[in-house]
Amino acid sequence: MWPVLRLLRRGLSTAAPRGLVYEKHGEPAQVLRLKNLAIASPANYEVRVKMLAAPINPSDLNMVQGTYALLPHLPSVGGNEGVGVVAEVGHHVSSVRPGDWVIPVDAALGTWRTEGVFSEEALVRVPSDISIVGAATLSVNPCTAYRLLSDYETLRPGDSVIQNASNSSVGQAVIQLAASLGITTINVVRDRPNLQSLVERLQDLGADHVITEEQLRKPEMKDLFKNCPRPRLALNCVGGKSTTEMLRHLDYGGTMVTYGGMAKQPVTIPVSALIFKNVKLCGFWVTQWKKDRYQNREEITKMIRDLCDLIRRGKLLPPPCTEWPLEDFSQALRDAQTPFLSRKQILIM
Amino acid sequence: MWPVLRLLRRGLSTAAPRGLVYEKHGEPAQVLRLKNLAIASPANYEVRVKMLAAPINPSDLNMVQGTYALLPHLPSVGGNEGVGVVAEVGHHVSSVRPGDWVIPVDAALGTWRTEGVFSEEALVRVPSDISIVGAATLSVNPCTAYRLLSDYETLRPGDSVIQNASNSSVGQAVIQLAASLGITTINVVRDRPNLQSLVERLQDLGADHVITEEQLRKPEMKDLFKNCPRPRLALNCVGGKSTTEMLRHLDYGGTMVTYGGMAKQPVTIPVSALIFKNVKLCGFWVTQWKKDRYQNREEITKMIRDLCDLIRRGKLLPPPCTEWPLEDFSQALRDAQTPFLSRKQILIM
């Protein structure tokens, strides 16, 4: 209980608003500066929000580096997700009121700050009876996992899904959401020194099978499919060899959805898989998905409600996080870029 | 008129039935033998057909070689498409009668023969007021082109489609079907000594743009899109570099359908095209498409009717063909395997 109280106290303090600002693209540790921010009172359709917590995701770093598909006007505050508490609302604001928790609907809000004034429609309310970390890490990775499992194949209990990068935040959310639906997951991870502890951690989340990239390539993989149906859905966040190998195990007519490219290599598919195995390939980008539903957001609110229900029931845990006070952002950025750390770095305001 | 009469006379002759039989897989010229066939009278639901003409398609050769995704029980008669005239029907046959022209619904019927007894449901009637060559080459390539243009993107007059292998039989059918629908085609071909005559021939069929693989890679391609919308649909029969380059020009959210792999190289897609350009990839195999509709064949008969209408109105010409008497099959096979010949070899029974 104590950390939450501490967070709330800090989050609601009256210190001058501050944020991690960058004026040009570059290495995050080089270009991000903690600066005081001028915050005006909210206009008619605006909301003043005191941020509580905001994680550091890989795509946040790519945005600062200038290598992402979506770039803000500079200068800008970094960070795309997080949770805040409404401090003050404009006259015409109807969807939230002071004390409500809110998360961004859209990317590029600039969440690495203590406080901000945002348009009402840029925010969506979340219940405040879930953990701050759960709420702060909800809008990118669990939403991606939710859409990946919902929008491409009609999956029924007993069906299976294969994914790589299974230890990523999306991967862990996929494991838990699939487990809550009775869907079997085949989870590919990179080999590493502490593999067994990773396997156990993913199994604790509900992973049915955890295999390494090396095992994925071996003929023994066919044994796995003696007691498990071929996956109708493959989720790819890697590219290169990992993806081609994963595709080989996809069921006839199945779909592979690519939502990331950690290996920085393209996706390569044998022509025969397309023609004779009838596999389909497509991509998913949660930012675009939400942008397309910005005006008519029923699907967004249903998804947030479903995910918060799972969080409340302990069926969807946030990724293991290390909390950092905002002023220690340099160490947080360093750890966010360290491979195999298996923890998300989260800034506490 | 004379050749048709000659064909009909030959096709309806009473000589002993013969066919190109192979007892093992291998090089077609080595393993195919012209043999007498024992033909029984048709049973209740069977039809005796005198074949008129049957083309030699690349997939026919792959089937004889044993490298195709669908292989018949051996010994077998080669050939997957062609047209014949019904000579005799079993007691319960209702869909065709003597004198009707028929083509195979399905692959692996063994069409390189003078005569055969087939189940009624393996055949579909075609009108006999189109050319024999048009009917004989209808069931694989024009059907593929028809489905490629119908089933993946909703195309309207003025929209554009890009394809490679544009001089293939499917490619030529795509050009003509698209032209009849008011859809602009961007047609990629391999460079060759007689390029200009090929360009003119495809333009005569209705091609709007004909470009070489080299031109496809050049920055000047963007000039083409000043007066032509980005294609919503890309049709791929090549693989390798050709496919990746073609994909670059696809519109946001467009679809690439792979129906062949002439370059014997896989399809390689940048991860960013999937995630940020939202392109979709899938495959098409006309054999499977028809198999899936074998029992409920409304879509098949509508397609055949539409295609025969276009043939009758001169809007869909068969590919340039060289006709060979069945006994000259060795030379026909040789020419069917000669690159850049730009003519289809067709056996006349």
From TrEMBL, chains A, B:
Give the signal sequence positions. Answer: none
| Predominant subcellular localization, coarse grouping | mitochondrion
Read off the InterPro entries from this record: ADH-like_C (IPR013149), ADH-like_N (IPR013154), ER (IPR020843), GroES-like_sf (IPR011032), Mito_Enoyl-ACP_Reductase (IPR051034), NAD(P)-bd_dom_sf (IPR036291)
Q: Which UniProt keywords apply?
A: Fatty acid biosynthesis, Fatty acid metabolism, Lipid biosynthesis, Lipid metabolism, Mitochondrion, NADP, Oxidoreductase, Transit peptide
Compartments it resides in: Mitochondrion
Instruction: Tell me one GO biological process term.
Output: fatty acid biosynthetic process
CDD domains with a match to the protein in the record: ETR
* Database matches in SUPFAM superfamilies: GroES-like, NAD(P)-binding Rossmann-fold domains
Annotated ranges, domain Enoyl reductase (ER): 29-347
Q: Name one Pfam family in it.
A: ADH_zinc_N
Select a single GO molecular function from the record's annotations and give it: enoyl-[acyl-carrier-protein] reductase (NADPH) activity
Write the Enzyme Commission number(s) for this entry: 1.3.1.104
Q: Name one GO cellular component term.
A: mitochondrion
The family note in this entry says: Belongs to the zinc-containing alcohol dehydrogenase family. Quinone oxidoreductase subfamily.
User: What is the protein name given in its UniProt record?
Assistant: Enoyl-[acyl-carrier-protein] reductase, mitochondrial
**Which source organism does the UniProt entry give?**
Eleutherodactylus coqui (Puerto Rican coqui)
